[in-house]
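ARCHIVE CARD
SHELF: 3
SLOT: left
DATA:
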Amino acid sequence: MNPKVDDYLGRIKNWQAELEKLRALLLECGLTEEYKWRVPCYTYGGANIVLFGNFKESCTLSFFKGVLLNDEKGILELPGENSQSVKMARFTSLQQIVDLEPTLKAYVFEAIEVEKAGIKIEKAKSKKLEFPEELLNKFEEDKAFKEAFEALTPGRQRAYNLHFTGAKQSATRTSRIEKYTDRIMNGIGINDCVCGHSKRMPTCDGSHKYL
């Protein structure tokens, strides 16, 4: 048992009993308990297998190579539409975890076998983004901005582009671009907080101030 996980569980305010149960379950599967990205992470032979996290409305158990699991019970879901590897199980009660304990352990053992076999995930190549005219104009007017945008990770570029193109009016698209110019110039994603973590990951517990 990793003392950093003890500290983590001592700090959280919700789903404590559920996460304690998940912790015991994962340790019973013979995984090594570590603490990465400010959340408990469980590994096998140095490879990441699964991690858990707490959100306002649920707690989750995320398998790093979840898309390779059979998921016979249909309990796993993608954390986002662009996810190509991780799949998670979501819980809203301790009884759910108790009822699914045999299944969850079976999934963990399957995930370990996937890692032992060295199976890799073939990730689809990202489609080339189609930028709105307002963003292309901004690139033309401000070369430094263009360089900063292109330096962002593909995921951050895609997230900004979705937000910009989501506006129906040209004026709104321009306003959104101007609003996020400083963040882009500083290499910060639209879903990042000041500590650099994504709002969508269980690394931020809501105590951080978002820009």
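SLOT: right
DATA:
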Amino acid sequence: MKIGIEAQRLFRPHKHGMDRVAQELIKNLQVIDKNNEYVVFVKPDRDTDAISETANFSIVEIPGGPYPYWEQIKLPKMAKQYNCDILHCTGNTAPIRTKIPLVTTLHDIIFMEDSVMQQLRNGASWYQKVGNLYRRIILNGVVKNSQRLITVSDFEKENIVDAFKEKSIGHIQTIHNGVSTHFMNSADLVALNHAKIKYNLPDNYMLHLANKDPRKNTKNVIKAFEGFLRTTRIPYKLVMLGYTKEDLVNTLKEIQSMELMNKVILPGYVPDRDLPAIYSLSQLFLFPSLREGFGIPIIEAMACGVPVITSNTSSMPEIAGDAACLVDPNHTESILQGIIKIETDTDYKEELIKKGLERCQLFSWRQMALQILDVYNNLYNDIKA
């Protein structure tokens, strides 16, 4: 069997959730599957070390063009040229006219929800708006053309089934994401100190993965942090990854909290290899997102021995279980009370850490890859039957 895997953004230097999932899938398949032949289709970019070719894995760079043109025209043409028996598209979209049997990973359908689209219209970047519009336009065709759909949580599976209940959506299966083995509670003081110096990290800080996407709930996180500072004399700071100084200034002006400028540290984009140290050095991890299909950072933080605050909505309770402090993301006071409980109740904090270290072991990239390999095999057998 020859399997094509779309990993268009895998070579870009700044990888995000779906890119990292595709990378882990490929790396784990390279270990566990020595029989089938794979062709990985990527767009040329700078991080060519993201994956390497092996005996049965070839990398094909498909150059240039806007993403819709790359995906709808170039990708199916190249998959046909390389005689792929199956094409797996890993990032929520796929060609809608290819005749090659298609597996699509639909991480979420957040971009189809009117409430989310309203938030995006109010605060998202031009790139995010265009990307979500493209997804909305083609999703019906993608679902119709996919022989197999994979999603990442039972919560999202229910959403997808409900959204397409009047249409045939083929076979849909939940396959959870994993956590990389280098995410651990590090005792390497040299590595921790190196990260502290490299990213100008303070002694006491809370960690938040910020984003201009309104669903990441950064405004409420900042408001809750501001409320916490009023309750303690500990010189806490808020470390926000993925936010620029311009982003921060605009947000603080909007919520009228410019006095927090010197309380926030902005390391910018942090590569995956440095994330475990930044998690490990933090006092707690703030992830009260408004909407997630899975929420990989939840289990990454747990694996690093950090107590987690996340939302009581969407997929997050499914992923966190009872190993996180669940709060109402729409109410700053709820987030604040979660912070206060962790910081004032030592037994509760230690319990969260212990449960988190146990919980994260339920999620494995190897297990994910094995389950997806089963999807490939079952589809191929159906094709040949």
